[in-house]
């Protein structure tokens, strides 16, 4: 077979002038094979069949006219192969299928390549090629311009699949057109692109090869580094759990003001959580009645029935998810009943304090917030007023305020904590509400920030969404409000509506929000999105029109380490492209540009670490 191909190629080069033989050789040999099959069909119809297209019973004569091409031995083998019953069966099946195609080609002798050039010239498009399903549909439009319903249905299904199928899936001989038609595909061809087009030539895929020993060792070292990093993260999480469990253990000295028994009936209470940090998350009423049930089911051991009235930490998780409403966040349980651990419920006439003793325990403050006057409104009102008096010496400060023995405490940290202690935010659990205008995140909302958030900033601890959004509000007020140049250039994405938990649980809602934000953009809009990966904040700057994403990571890491986040951004940009009916080249349609912004530690200031 190889010698025959070489002979054919030699004859072709002797008869024709071919410029680029390295690229055209494969296609020309494929075309020669097609012509050869046509010639064999011609011999069959002329010498082996009668006028009624039936095989003759007698032995056909040897075609002396073609003796220079066919030897007598080859002719005998050819006749035997054509008279074989299996060949006749396959030939009849192929003739029947070709005579009545499901989706008939309507362009006559005009091939796919010429048809594509014609469409691009008529539309004056800058694109170099058309998607296969678009070209497939145009090839089945009649002279009157009508499109059959079944053809239009396949095209609409291709448009839907193109928004959900990744680039890798689209290149594995299962394109959106093949999936919509639901027919088997053969390797080496691309449906809807005509003869000679292969996946390699269309997608520019390099041939797969076995990795070298050096590549295997590099991959092994990378995997070992990932395992070590996972072990470090696991150890860190264990330390965090250990610290939170130590806070739960209450010693005798630290439990002097702790109620061993809740009053019967309904009492106002404060709701706390101990993980990942010990903090006040909401207020409500505890229902301490004998035989009380929660949604017609017995309460878990060590829990009481609580109705949630006020949420102070909107990202707080419920200790036990609500099985009726399937709520997992505290903010989704407002006005309903949930189960809450006994050791994290405190009656309003007594606020948990953090005693300055060496014993481990739930640290509580000796001031009550029950007398705080709370005013809840949609505006940016203050919810808490300064109450009582507070001693300012270190003996009265909670344990968490005191540094470790011998540890250095920066002067600015002491000054900031003193400033907060002298304000109306001195009380544990005191909060303020900030109005977030619609221009900031695309919707109006109210952000909560409490004393605990300020302490996290002062001590360079983990920051919550409220702190990040408050800083965004600061940037908006001081740089963008009234400045058309900056406000038209930069916009923000809410970390409350698009975060790791929601991406895993409700990816559709996250994508809809991003697309809605992108659709409101004008020329050269850059969207800033703080993304919390679970234990670390990242920053993404997204240019949806140019389809460029700038990835900012203060620690070493690539965007490939966050596949859910990357897939959400890529899909949102593609949907945004489809909704604004933008046409891009085939080589660009599935490739969103990601650029890693390198940070230099020498330029990072103290403010960058807050």
From TrEMBL:
SUPFAM superfamilies: Cysteine proteinases (SSF54001). Residues 264-347 form the DUF8039 domain. Residues 213-240 form a coiled coil. The keyword Coiled coil applies. It comes from the Eukaryota. Pfam families: DUF8039. It comes from Pisum sativum (Garden pea). Keywords: Coiled coil. The lineage of its organism: Eukaryota, Viridiplantae, Streptophyta, Embryophyta, Tracheophyta. This is DUF8039 domain-containing protein. Residues 188-210 are annotated as: Disordered.
């Amino acid at each position: 077979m190889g010698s025959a191909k070489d002979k054919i190629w030699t004859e072709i080069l002797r008869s024709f002038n071919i410029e680029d033989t390295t690229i055209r050789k494969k296609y020309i040999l494929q075309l020669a094979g097609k012509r050869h099959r046509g010639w064999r069909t011609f011999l069959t119809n002329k010498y082996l069949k009668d006028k009624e297209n039936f095989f003759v019973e007698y032995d056909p004569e040897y075609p002396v006219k073609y003796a220079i091409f066919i030897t007598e031995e080859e002719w005998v083998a050819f006749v035997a192969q054509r008279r074989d019953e299996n060949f006749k069966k396959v030939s009849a099946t192929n003739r029947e299928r070709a005579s009545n195609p499901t989706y008939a080609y309507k362009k006559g002798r005009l091939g796919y390549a010429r048809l594509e050039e014609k469409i691009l010239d008529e539309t004056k498009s800058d694109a170099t090629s058309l998607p296969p399903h678009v070209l497939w549909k145009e090839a089945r439009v009649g002279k009157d311009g009508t499109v059959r319903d079944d053809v239009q249905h396949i095209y609409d299904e291709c448009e839907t699949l193109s928004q959900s199928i990744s680039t890798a899936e689209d290149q594995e001989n299962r394109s959106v057109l093949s999936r919509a038609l639901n027919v088997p595909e053969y390797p080496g061809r691309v449906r809807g692109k005509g003869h000679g087009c292969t996946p390699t030539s269309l997608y520019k895929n390099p041939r797969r090869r076995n990795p070298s020993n050096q590549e295997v060792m590099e991959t092994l070292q990378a995997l070992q580094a990932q395992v070590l990093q996972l072990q470090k993260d696991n150890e860190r999480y264990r330390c965090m759990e250990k610290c939170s469990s130590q806070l739960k253990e209450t010693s005798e000295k630290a439990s002097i003001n702790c109620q061993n028994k809740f009053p019967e009936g309904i009492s106002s209470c404060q709701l706390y959580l101990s993980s990942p940090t010990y903090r006040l998350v909401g207020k409500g009423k505890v229902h301490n009645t004998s035989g009380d049930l929660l949604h017609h089911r017995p309460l878990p051991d060590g829990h009481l029935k609580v109705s949630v009235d006020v949420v102070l930490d909107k990202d707080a998780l419920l200790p036990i998810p609500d099985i009726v409403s399937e709520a997992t966040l505290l903010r989704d349980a407002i006005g309903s009943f949930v189960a809450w651990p006994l050791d994290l419920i405190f009656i309003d006439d007594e606020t948990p304090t953090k005693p300055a003793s060496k014993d481990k325990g739930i640290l509580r403050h000796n001031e009550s917030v029950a007398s705080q006057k709370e005013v809840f409104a949609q505006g940016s009102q203050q919810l808490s007023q300064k109450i009582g008096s507070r001693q300012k010496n270190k003996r009265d400060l909670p344990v968490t305020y005191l540094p470790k023995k011998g540890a250095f405490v920066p002067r600015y940290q002491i000054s900031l904590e003193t400033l907060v202690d002298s304000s109306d935010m001195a009380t544990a659990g005191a909060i303020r509400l900030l109005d977030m205008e619609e221009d900031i995140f695309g919707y109006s909302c109210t952000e909560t920030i409490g004393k605990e958030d300020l302490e996290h900033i002062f001590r360079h601890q983990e920051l919550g969404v409220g702190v990040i959004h408050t800083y965004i509000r600061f940037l908006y007020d001081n740089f963008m409000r009234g400045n058309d140049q900056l406000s038209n250039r930069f916009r923000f994405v809410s970390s409350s509506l698009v975060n790791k938990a929601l991406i895993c649980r409700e990816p559709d809602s996250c994508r809809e929000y991003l697309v809605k934000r992108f659709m409101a953009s004008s020329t050269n809009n850059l969207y800033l999105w703080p993304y919390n990966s679970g234990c670390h904040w990242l920053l993404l700057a997204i240019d949806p029109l140019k389809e460029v994403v700038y990835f900012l990571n203060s620690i070493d890491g690539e965007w490939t380490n966050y596949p859910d986040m990357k897939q959400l951004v890529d899909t949102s940009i593609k949907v945004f492209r489809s909704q604004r009916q933008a046409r891009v080249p085939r080589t660009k349609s599935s490739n969103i540009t990601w650029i890693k912004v390198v940070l230099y530690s020498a330029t990072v200031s103290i403010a960058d670490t807050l």
